Amino acid sequence: WEPVCRIAAFGYRPARGLGAHVAPRIDGIGVAPGLAMSTSAVGTSKVTRSHLIAKLNEDLSREYQAIAAYVVYSQVLKGAEYMAIARELETHAGEELQHAITIAKHIDYLGGTPTTEARPVKMSDDPRVLLRADLDNENDTIRQYRQRVRECESLGEYAIAEDIREILRQEQEHQVDLAMALGEGVPDVSQLAPVAD
């Protein structure tokens, strides 16, 4: 059995040796310019399986927080200007549940135990405060999942990385929805400080 690295539109290619870094190739021509990256270049050179389990459990706590927030916020947002986003938040709640299930499966696969602890959910009578809390949490989640993809790949856990990429895509859609509801542009999460508990 050889680990397989999936590179977007470029297809599948077996990795050489367990945990080996695989530089993408385009139709056998060679390494795609700018795509080869060592693990030390992304700050993941010291990632271990137990570290990844701990970080995925933190992600799972954020997913539980998102489920609770979206369920509650979708019901307490009042007023005509919030009807569309309230419906969208109901959809987000279902997507976050699927994310939680996916992350829990990967924690179990890695030999860990999925957490049951959720991060706290902010409450307010002001709809904009609720939407801001959601957007801040999505920004933090996106930042964390981008790091998790790098960590998974540094361990050769490409299938987990692919699942997290799909979760990340949906989280970015949530981010866009929330920013639009607040009448703002989508924040550059690489420039924002992490959200404190």
Topology:
Layout: E1 4-7, E2 11-14, H1 49-76, H2 83-109, H3 127-154, H4 158-181
Antiparallel strand pairs: 1-2
Structure report:
- By secondary structure, the chain is mainly α.
- It is built from four helices and two strands.
- It has helices at residues 49-76, 83-109, 127-154, 158-181, and strands at 4-7, 11-14.
- It has a two-stranded antiparallel ribbon with strand order 1-2.
- A hairpin with a 3-residue loop joins strand 1 (4-7) and strand 2.
- The model is unreliable at 1-42 (pLDDT under 50).
Question: TL;DR of this structure?
Answer:
This protein is 54% helix and 4% strand. It is mainly α and 197 residues long. Strand 1 (4-7) and strand 2 (11-14) form a beta hairpin.
